[in-house]
Amino acid sequence: MSTSVKLEMWSGFRDNALSSSFVQNYSSYDVVKLVVISVGFCVLLSKAWRRHGGGKGEIPGRLGWPFLGETFAFLSATNSTKGCYEFVRLRRLWHGKWFKTRIFGKTHVFVPSPEGAKTIFSNDFVQFNKGYVKSMADAVGRRSLLCVPVESHKRIRRLLSDPFSMPSLAKFVTKFDKMVSDRLQIKAAKGESFRLLDFSMKVTFDSMCEMLMSVRDPSLLDEIQSLCDDVSNAMLSLPLMIPGTRYYKGIKGREKLMKVFGDMIGKRRSGEESWEEDFLQSMLCKDSLPPEERLEDEEIMDNLITLIIAGQTTTAAAIMWSVKFLNDNQQAQDLLREEQLLIDKNKPHGEALTLGDLNAMSYASKVMKETLRMSNVLLWFPRVALDDCRIEGLKIQKGWHVNIDATCIHYDPSFYKDPMQFNPSRFDERQKPYTYMPFGSGPRTCLGINMAKVTMLVFLHRLAGGYKWSVDDPDTNLEKKSHIPRLRSGCPITLIPIEN
Ligand code: HEM
User: In which residues is heme bound (predicted)?
Assistant: First the structure.
């Protein structure tokens, strides 16, 4: 058909239409209304279509500009007092449970289901792996559990594990118990408000350094803490070795930390420094074993940094949230206190807690679980697809980041009734597989899971069994620029000793 014929047909149709009774009988207001309704209908239809993956297993979402994608929106959420999960929450409202986005040039899919979590965790290292982040490897070290390939990961993890087993933690429990009891007493005696987050950061750090390397000297503890902070800040920074940047500070911090740890190892080996039974010594006493049964010095040192960084902020934040949630739910606080007072009653006065006592803390253990469910200290667990694949029938391309969205699963009302209610008793019932995973799952399950649990139980026992408290700032805003949700206020509290 020639162009002129087509034009003729179109103008004929237009002329007929214009002269038709349709236009004559309806006002321009009606036409506008019709257009708006039609456009709205099309938008809804296309949304529904995308939500259902367009029927072809496509995941809905907005990739935005090339490379940049939605990076600015992500950074803006991270820099706000709502926290970076707000970015995820909003996109779920817009696109549905499954969605994809682009951040820093990489496509990310947020995986919202237990089935998806199971697929990824049970294929960890095979079909999925942790994404390689240069700044992270440079900061914590290439021999860190967080960075090594699968074969080394298995060996290093096996050799690191023993000091974190429950029986090995008995001594840690006694020491941590004394540390927490003494420090709470000092705070209570002062009768002043203090930031609980600072308290929990310091006590978890000091107790970890004691357990790992028997470091007690306050100035050395301060030095290691400040260097670890620098390393931790560099882990997700731009790897630019320019003075003044977070990356530069972190790399310099790492060099100094390596020197501190290296000196410590050297002095223990030469006998210049007496040693105690601690994590470091349990690694060094394998010196005479064949290579596959011991760790090289670099592996020990990289993993010392890793353990401190992975263990301190997470546990400290969880402790802070437990206090906040218990403050908001007086009934749970009373039940927790009742259990702790009963445990105390059955022990000689002043005796330290044992693993047996912790086993008897059935309600405290539910408080701990519920705290971890609601606080989602690690919001999601990132992996990268090593090949094209499908999760629940949805297409995932090689190189895409698939983030197991533990927060979404922990807040899903189909697994947790009234998910935003702090209700420890919900853990009277067993959870369905992959619906509760604050410590991850599979070969990368948290190495410090037992240590984190006993730390929280001892803290809950000493706090609720010895004191009532008021939270002195009701502000619920979150700290800006933190990937671990923490209250901006630091959760200030005042302790009120319980009269026995
Ligand atoms: C409440 C406190 C804690 C929480 C919520 C927590 C959570 C987690 C989670 C979810 C993972 C897995 C992440 C993933 O799969 O991508 C993990 C890994 C890890 N955690 Fe923890 N953690 C806590 C305390 C600790 C402590 C106290 C330590 C050690 C002292 C520790 C050491 C580690 C290490 C080394 C890994 C890496 C394991 C590997 O890749 O094989 N964590 N943690």
Answer: 446
Give the whole-number percent of the chain exceeding pLDDT 70. Answer: 89
Average pLDDT of every residue of the chain: 91
Q: Which atom of ligand 1 is nearest to the CA of 308?
A: 30
Ligand 1 centroid, distance to 382 Cα (angstroms): 13
Distance between CA atoms of 57 and 394, rounded to whole angstroms?
4
pTM of the model: 0.89
* Euclidean distance between CA atoms 363 and 166, whole angstroms: 19
CB 336 within 8 A of CB 464: yes
- Is the beta carbon of 318 within 6 A of some atom in ligand 1? yes
Q: Please, which residues bridge with residue 468 across strands?
A: 496
- Residue 181 and residue 378: Cα distance in Å, rounded? 28
Check the annotation: does 491 bind a ligand: no
Cα separation, 135 vs 197, whole angstroms: 27
Rounded alpha-carbon distances, angstroms, from residue 290 to 63, 228, 305: 51, 31, 25
- Beta strand 106-111 with 401-404: parallel, antiparallel or unpaired? parallel
CA 17 to centroid of ligand 1, rounded, Å: 69
Q: Cα–Cα–Cα angle for 17, 23, 26, nearest 5°? A: 160
* CA 232 to centroid of ligand 1, rounded, Å: 14
Question: What is the number of the ligand 1 atom nearest to the C-alpha of 437?
Answer: 10
Cβ-based burial of 73 (10 A; exposed 0-12, middle 13-18, buried ≥19): middle
Enter the DSSP assignment of 302: H
- Has residue 318 got a pLDDT over 60? yes
